[in-house]
Design a protein that fits this description.
The chain is mainly α. Helices cover about 80% and strands about 0% of the residues. It is elongated, with a radius of gyration of 21 Å. The relative contact order is 0.12. It comes from Mesorhizobium wenxiniae. Keywords: Isomerase. Its EC number is 5.4.99.5. This is chorismate mutase.
């Protein structure tokens, strides 16, 4: 009987954890949407002033900053860097599309 209670408790805990994970996933999606809204504005600003879509110096600063934040948060810095690199590649792709639609040549 104790084993059944342990299993029921484990299932209840699993439901609670999964509800929290679902909430976190939703927050991440909304945060990413807001980030991309801002980076779209940056891309439009860059394109309107003939600035290149990519900024390697800024990207390196951000990688170093996020690696330190990851360490402080007890998150694998390599994972954080991979995640940032994925996001930055997508941002640059968007900036290149914006630049192309404004007649600015692709650089990089």
């Amino acid at each position: 009987m104790n084993e059944e209670k342990d299993m029921a408790d484990a299932r209840a805990a699993l439901v609670d954890y999964r509800a929290s994970i679902d909430n976190i996933d939703a927050a991440l999606i909304y945060m990413l949407a807001e980030r991309f809204r801002c980076t779209k504005a940056v891309g439009e600003l860059k394109a309107s002033h003939g600035l290149p879509p990519a900024d390697p110096a800024r990207e390196q600063q951000q990688i170093a900053r996020l690696r330190q934040l990851a360490k402080d948060a007890h998150l694998d810095p390599d994972f954080a860097e991979k995640f940032l690199n994925f996001v930055v590649r997508e941002v640059i792709r968007h900036h290149e599309q914006i630049a192309a639609s404004n007649g600015v040549a692709k650089t990089g």
